[in-house]
Amino acid sequence: MRYVKVIILAILAVLLVSVALANSAPVTLRLVPEAMAGFLGLTWTVTLPMFVVILAAVGVGLLIGFLLEFARESKHRAAARDERRERQALERRLASRGPRSDGGGDDILALLEDGSVPKRKAS
Description:
The protein is mostly helical. The chain is built from five helices and two strands; from the N terminus they run H-E-H-E-H-H-H.
């Protein structure tokens, strides 16, 4: 399995390098269109290679997706946390009761509680 992971990462690296080499021309990014830049007074521009823009867009998209998925699953994590706390409280409560000392009771419950079969009293 480790070799499969290394092979997949190597293929991904080769693909990313080929995309970078094929898209190395500089691209100018503007905050607002040129027609509105004079009107608003915002003339922020940056010139980057195209592959940086592509990889940054993919990274931002992944980040947004991860954040949305994290928010969507928060109710499931909260429910699991509540159930785990309830289970631990019930286990503590059951452990504090200790083994049954009355010698009677249900054989099935005795098996479930401590794995032993209670001895029957002779009549």
